[in-house]
Amino acid sequence: MSVTVAPIVIIGSGLAGYTLARELRKLDRETPLALVSADDGSFYSKPMLSNALASGKSASGLALKTVAAMAAELNAEVHAGTEMQAIDLAGRRVLTAAGEIGWSRLVLALGADPIRLPLAGDGAAAVISVNDLGDYARFRAAIEGTRRVAILGAGLIGCEFANDLVLGGYAVEVADIAAQALGRLLPPEAAAGLRDALATAGVRWHLGKKAVAVDRAGSALVLRFEDGTHIETDVVLSAVGLAPRTGRARAAGIEIKRGIVVDRFLRSSDADVYALGDCAEVEGQVLPFVMPIMHAARALASTLCGSEKAVIYPPMPVVVKTPALPTVVCPPAPGVAGAWQVESGTGGTLARYVDAAGKLIGFALTGAAVSHKNLLMKELQTT
Question: What is the pLDDT of residue 288?
């Protein structure tokens, strides 16, 4: 008499969920596997959303594989268009609008939600955030036939969208309460170079300004700042950051801080529940980039297949997609004290982040200085 084995269930079909499923199948083709996806389950590369316009890609063109193709590739059930409503830890099941799904082990690859600024005004509801392929399709529809886009947020995603939109022929304005672009990643000298390069490309900057309202003015929108100034635009795109998606895990009694708290084996406060990607807080770190997801997925796949493997993060450079000024950043580990050593010239900026002993613990490169990436990576890996 055969015994039905409950599957490993992955909640989420973004980069984290599908990467983990692929890594699992490299090690084990037979263990039952199911994915639960709130969207249509197609596979696409989320980092491509912020430079798709200049690349000539529509929203539909970014979908690389259908849900049926992914299910066949992974030998898995993929429950598309199925939102998880609750996690039942005692019953080892997830509840969805389409019914319940039992699990032997549960992986939360829930992603993150866009942070929404508390904006006043009758146009505040028209502000768009892009966090997935469906969002991007709505954004492309919104900018069709317009020429002006205002972006809230001068971080990585805001700068990438700004560069993409100006290359696409749009008049772009970027606003941020911070005094510089990429404030969490670049020293001021490198940030100034990026600001100036994007300004030359056509971006208008409104740094050190707090957005407080969006009002309608006929078919246009008026973005208002605390100092009384304003921008008239056709579309407002918010790119002020992401917050780990933790509500369902919290409601189930799983430990939450900034994200879903997990150890180096990606195990949560429940021994059979794991988390990775933008929703996970790995020993105090929330790392919303591609490379941490890849390392985490490989380690977790090994653990789920019976060979426990802690995730170890090597130096992980981030390539910022701003062709106006090529930029590469390798941030130091969170909480590690240090200081920038900056060399700037007409061709770009080479910035080393060093600790009190002068040891390299991070770097930022712009322009021609990006050619030093491999050399600095070797130095990081040997110190």
Answer: 84
For 180-200, give one letter per residue: b (16+ CB within 10 A) or e. bbbeebbbebbbbbbbebbee
pLDDT per residue as tens digits for the range 309-350 = 999 999 999 999 999 999 999 988 777 889 999 998 888 999
Query: What is the distance between the alpha carbons of residues 151 and 166, in angstroms, rounded to a whole number?
Result: 12
As a whole number of angstroms, the distance between CA 233 and CA 240 comes to: 18
DSSP letter, residue 264: T
Residue 338 tokens, joined: 């240090």
User: 82: which DSSP letter?
Assistant: -
Residue 1: is its pLDDT beyond 50? no
Please give the model's pTM, rounded to 2 decimal places: 0.94
H-only helix segments in 98-181: 133-143, 156-167
Q: What is the pLDDT of residues 190-200, one digit of tens each?
A: 999 999 999 99
| Residues whose CB is less than 8 angstroms from the CB of residue 24 and which lie 6 or more positions away in sequence, other chains included | 8, 31, 33, 301, 304, 305
* Contact in structure between 51 and 164 (CB atoms under 8 Å): yes
66 lies in which domain range? 8-111+243-304
- Cα separation, 333 vs 313, in Å, equals 10
Same domain, 179 and 92: no
Note the pLDDT tens digit of each residue in 187-244: 999 999 999 999 999 999 999 999 999 999 999 999 999 999 999 999 999 999 999 9
136 belongs to a structural domain:
yes
pLDDT of 110 > 50? The answer is yes
Both 99 and 12 in one domain: the answer is yes
User: 3-state class of 380 per DSSP?
Assistant: helix
